[in-house]
Design goal:
The protein is mostly beta strands. It is built from 1 helix and 6 strands; from the N terminus they run ββββββα.
């Protein structure tokens, strides 16, 4: 027997920098809850960036933009 899953979608942020598909997202349920967004593409097979974007899910604002690509070089 499988468990029933219920999901509610909420519009969080419309910042053009966050527009992407095929990305990775992780959500931290802390206070405030945050979403960590990495990678993805805007057009097929064209990587968007190598940055980590952090979105505060309580206020729905992009809280931080970590540019790892500049740290690694």
């Amino acid at each position: 027997m499988s468990a029933k899953l219920s999901v509610n979608w909420k519009f969080v942020q419309k910042d053009p920098v966050l527009q992407r598909s095929s990305h990775t997202i992780a959500v931290s349920p802390g206070d405030p809850a945050q979403a960590y967004i990495f990678g993805g593409e805007l057009n097929p097979r064209e990587p968007r960036d190598n940055d980590v974007h952090i979105v505060d899910l309580q206020d729905c604002i992009r809280a931080l933009h970590l540019v790892y690509s500049s740290i690694l070089y």
